[in-house]
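Notes from hallway chat w/ T.B., transcribed later so I don't forget. T.B. wanted the structure written out for a chain they're using in a teaching module, and asked if we could keep both sequence and structure tokens in one place. Agreed to drop them here.
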Amino acid sequence: MDQNPDIHNRPVTQDRSIAVSGKEVKLEIKKNRILRALYIIGGTVSLALAILGIVLPGLPVTPLALLSAFLYAKSSPRLYNWLLNNKVLGPRIKNYQRRKGITRKGKLGVLAFMTIMVLFSSFVVAGAGTLRWVILSLGIIGCIVVIFFVPNAKEK
């Protein structure tokens, strides 16, 4: 008989670590197959949106690539390493990990570009009506997230 019944209710994880730019990053790989599959699906959707954001103005590339890296880090070391070694998205993710955030100059650039694209989309592309207000509301939410929730990195 088990002495500690709580031991079976905790999620099982597998710790692995990889080197990123000379630093060791600890990966917490989930052992639950369903959870891992959900993380992989979420990471793949996020990656697809990040790739789409390369050609579509207004869709953020770096935050979606970071989300994809986070989800892959919890599900698949192979996919995580592939993403970090990607020529287009890998440097963005490594830079964020190395600096632990985005510099003030980078944040200002993101906010300026996002503001321009939101205003363009809502007043030029979308007609008057509900869609315009949805775009403007999402733009405001995006600005709030960048300002208050994305960590500030140290300048070089």
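Follow-up for T.B.: Strands lie at 13-20, 23-30. Might be a good example for the class.
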